[in-house]
What we know:
Blueprint: H1 2-20, H2 24-39, E1 42-43, H3 44-51, H4 55-67, E2 71-77, E3 80-85
Antiparallel strand pairs: 1-3, 2-3
Amino acid sequence: MVRAFAEETRAEQIGNQAVTQPSNSQSLDRKVLLLLRRKGAQTIEGLTMLAGIGWGQAFLSVDRLSRTGKVSLTAPYPSEYRVSVGRASGFTKVISPPYCK
């Protein structure tokens, strides 16, 4: 009986913490933005080393941030992307070559 009560109390505490703390993705996104502001543009591999996270976590964070315009991606070399803090407007104008119309 006492053990069941203790487990239930622990579950309630864990549940309360989950409600009051920001999600891991939000915390990670803030960390990535802070690193980019402090260290400048980075590759995804560079972000993994600086933030101490896995490549998949860095990729998902960059994906979320780029969709909201908070970071932008450039390709200095084939198959390499550089992540930097996004523009103030949040969107980058894309100009299509005339033969694509």
